[in-house]
Amino acid sequence: MKTKAKKLFMSILALILVLTLLAGCSNGSSDEPKNDGGNNEEVNNSGDEKVSSKDTLTIGAFGEAQSLFPANDGKVPGAQFAANVYETLVQMDKEGNIYPVLAETYEQIDDLSYKFVLKKGVKFHNGEELKASDVVFSMKHFCENPRTKSNTIGFDPDNFEIIDDYTLILRTSTPFAPFIRSICNVNLGIFNEKFYNENVDNIDMVACGTGPFKFVEWNQGANIEIERFDDYHGEKAKLKTINIRLIPEANSRLLELETGGIDIMQDVPGISLEQVESNPELSLYTNESVAVTFLALNFDRELLSNTKIRRAIAHAIDNDALRKACLMDAALTANSFLPSTVPGYKADTAAFGYDVEKAKSLLAEAGYPDGISFPLAFYQSSDNRRVGEVLQAMLKEANIDLELSEMETSTYTPFLNSREQFAAITTLNNTLRDPNYTLSKLYSDAQGVGGNRVNYNNPEMDDLLNRASSESDWDKRVELYDEIQELMYEDTVWIPLYSAKVCIGTTSTLRGYTMEFPMNYQNYAACYFAE
């Protein structure tokens, strides 16, 4: 066993060296002082500097949106669009405090009811004024849409109530502790009822929100362009145009950032952090993760429905070696089903332990003494490719053969929605910083489109989730979430791999950029350039 472990370790070291050589070409000088971008505030700013006439911000995105309608795309590329074009009733700042956006005021009036008074004079991008009817229509849609259903479990759409044009009441069917946090979700951005009805057959390709930017065009496979909305109800955006370019490969995004082709690079890989940080013309922003990336094994597949098989796969993975080989300092080793930044996190709840011999023994007990094989799907990215290759090497030591299947982002999510996958690399982001937002993906009726990527069906889990979300006493909620995670461990529902940090590279002349959302996307209304 020691010989095989040593062989695997040496292989991983060799892989790191090769990846470093491939991605290490730099136009920046390591002799320059590191930029202080990691504080997540504006850098190199001075009260005497001049504002540049440059009025277009270009973003290098790692993936493409699946839809322009907020409810139909819960992934980062779609959320980036929604965060600038649509708005929610309330929103959460980076400290976790709730503040009103479309709502002027809000209050909980009883255990099940929340009253909202809307701002007056808020315009949609089609010129229609925001009314309570738009909010109720939107929220009812979110409750019915299978893609957002897991985000609205506990809501009671039949008893939503319009009081007048600017006042409404939203209700839950039972007490629901994370209600206000839940409606901060950017995928629950309020849309115009009239516009939706006029465009329902083409709703994925058009947009009409109340945000500081409005939709211009989407060249699929290339870019999305949005521009300043001059009738915005709040402070107007400083920039005229934002161009979101699709650049899947990290090396290509970095080259574009270094040569001025883009102003913001999403998802700087660990192998390139020093290259960005040491370049005086660039700034690096980082934030602790609110996400966990998992190996998701499909319970629908007979082979993977066997708990011993899933546990064998978990024991064949050395999470720490995987993180060091593939993401370096851009991630933390995952040992829990929840990110460490989310309340309710408990260390080692998902620490299965690396043990190749135990993995082989479990396979034999399950009736597969000679091993197993199955395909592993992931969306196109350099990080995912490295993770897939290292997983393939690790599992091979336990007689588990992986066939790697790299897919374009435009086809990956529909593939998972179809429930046809065997295994997939998938990430759950918890921007709302409430355990319910991650764990609710395990509701039985959230399988497939609803975000239950392992297609886990367990009434006991459904009951625990319902009890936890309806519990108002935080300590009692935590106890229930502990119980939920114990059940997840027992059933080997998810296999955590790593918790990636948010690492963003920008041109050093960008101002007004703050990581309000702990994600790869932000609202860019305050951004501008200095000369």
TrEMBL record:
The keyword Aminoacyl-tRNA synthetase does not apply. Pfam families: SBP_bac_5. InterPro entries: Peptide/Ni-bd, SBP_5, SBP_5_CS, SBP_5_dom. Residues 29-52 are annotated as: Disordered. One of its GO terms (molecular function) is peptide transmembrane transporter activity. Keywords: Signal, Transport. It is a lipid-anchor. One of its GO terms (biological process) is peptide transport. PROSITE patterns: PROKAR_LIPOPROTEIN, SBP_BACTERIAL_5. The keyword Transport applies. Residues 37-46 have a biased composition (Polar residues). It is found in: Cell membrane. SUPFAM superfamilies: Periplasmic binding protein-like II. GO terms for cellular component: ATP-binding cassette (ABC) transporter complex; periplasmic space. Residues 98-447 form the Solute-binding protein family domain. Residues 1-23 form the signal peptide. Belongs to the bacterial solute-binding protein 5 family. PANTHER family: OLIGOPEPTIDE-BINDING PROTEIN APPA (PTHR30290:SF9), PERIPLASMIC BINDING COMPONENT OF ABC TRANSPORTER (PTHR30290). This is ABC transporter substrate-binding protein.
